[in-house]
């Protein structure tokens, strides 16, 4: 092997050995489901601190998800954020959650739009005992949301929750922080 070839392989090995990575799904812990969720305590507003989500939510600022119980037992959800900046246009969605029987209220199906014939999996995978922080995940390991009752989180807490998410097989290099600044300036 000539010197250039040897140097190229050494450089590639170095790059890949230091690149951020998660456990492979085969060696990662399964995406957990908390034992039970007290829905009354869970209702209310949650600030999105970090997420792996659809491209349409990249660049979200001041993202908040608010839950309330409907009379039929479903969960009304209002997701809102500012697109691109704190003063960007507001995006609002109104998905509806349906708790799966026998899940301890920890597994939901989320219908993004009333006319869609399917629901997306929504797993309450981690929940602090005081209901201050929640991690919502999916078995496919495609989306995840780290949310808090407060708009900001310490760097050490963010690192701890990020490591937990990584232990479930998520590629945490895709986890994006969601900037939060409250109160908001006047709406546009």
UniProtKB/TrEMBL annotation:
One of its GO terms (biological process) is response to stress. The keyword rRNA-binding does not apply. Residues 37-180 form the Lipocalin/cytosolic fatty-acid binding domain. GO terms for molecular function: lipid binding. Residues 1-22 form the signal peptide. Its main location: membrane. It is found in: Cell outer membrane. Gene3D superfamilies: 2.40.128.20. Belongs to the calycin superfamily. Lipocalin family. Homodimer. This is Outer membrane lipoprotein Blc.
């Amino acid at each position: 092997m000539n010197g250039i070839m040897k140097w190229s392989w050494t450089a590639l090995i170095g790059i890949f050995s230091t690149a951020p990575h998660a456990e492979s799904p085969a060696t990662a812990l399964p995406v957990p489901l908390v034992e039970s969720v007290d829905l009354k305590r869970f209702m209310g507003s949650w600030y999105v601190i970090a997420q792996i989500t659809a491209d349409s939510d990249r660049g979200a600022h001041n993202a908040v998800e608010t839950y309330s119980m409907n009379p039929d037992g479903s969960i009304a959800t209002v997701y809102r954020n500012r697109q691109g900046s704190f003063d960007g246009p507001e995006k609002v969605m109104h998905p509806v959650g349906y708790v799966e029987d026998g899940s301890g209220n920890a597994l939901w199906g989320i219908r993004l739009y009333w006319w869609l014939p399917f629901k997306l999996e929504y797993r309450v995978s981690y929940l602090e005992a005081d209901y201050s922080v929640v991690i919502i995940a999916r078995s496919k390991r495609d989306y995840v949301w780290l949310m808090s009752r407060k708009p900001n989180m310490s760097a050490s807490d963010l690192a701890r929750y990020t490591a937990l998410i990584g232990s479930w097989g998520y590629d945490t290099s895709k986890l994006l922080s969601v900037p939060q600044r409250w109160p908001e300036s006047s709406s546009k």
